[in-house]
């Protein structure tokens, strides 16, 4: 089953938003929901013997990636540029890698939600070929072992 994210929220801040019906943030989950976490542990290789001796593996790290667009709003280019910068600064503070972990909530296509506690690792902002529209990629690292998925809203 392929889950599509319709909305995302980190630490109570919506990552899909608009101002006066003009889109401002369109950030969605790119990876990390359906993928298995990275594990810690390695098998033992004995020189001269075929194969390996299997060793324990334990869950270690779940990488989550958010990605999308920041689009400055306003009626003039200057207002749009100013709003783009303001939105970038808001995201920079929200996804500061030195902050404490917070709750990430993803709304799924069936109306259900997937929730996990995660900490920001990195945020990369794309080139400013159109300064009022910027691409953003945000990497988080899960603190919880797995997502808590709840059913659709009736």
Keywords:
1 helix, mainly beta, two-stranded antiparallel ribbon, Elongation Factor Tu (Ef-tu), domain 3, 9-stranded antiparallel beta sheet
CATH class: Mainly Beta
- What distance lies between the first and last C-alpha atoms, to the nearest angstrom? 20 Å
Shape: elongated
Q: Report the C-alpha radius of gyration, rounded.
A: 19 Å
Low-confidence stretches: none
Number of strands: 11
Q: What's the tally of helices?
A: 1
| Topology order in helix (H) and strand (E) letters | EEEEEEEHEEEE
- Write down the domain tally: 1
Describe this structure in words.
- It contains one helix and eleven strands.
- It has 154 residues and is mainly beta.
- The chain has one domain (5-39, 55-150): Elongation Factor Tu (Ef-tu), domain 3.
- Strand 3 (16-19) and strand 4 (22-31) form a beta hairpin.
Short structural description:
With 154 residues, the chain is mainly beta. Helices cover 12% and strands 46% of the residues. It has one helix and eleven strands.
How is the topology of this model organized?
Elements: E1 5-10, E2 13-14, E3 16-19, E4 22-31, E5 38-40, E6 58-61, E7 63-71, H1 77-94, E8 102-108, E9 113-125, E10 133-142, E11 148-150
Antiparallel strand pairs: 1-2, 1-8, 3-4, 4-7, 5-6, 7-10, 8-9, 9-10, 9-11
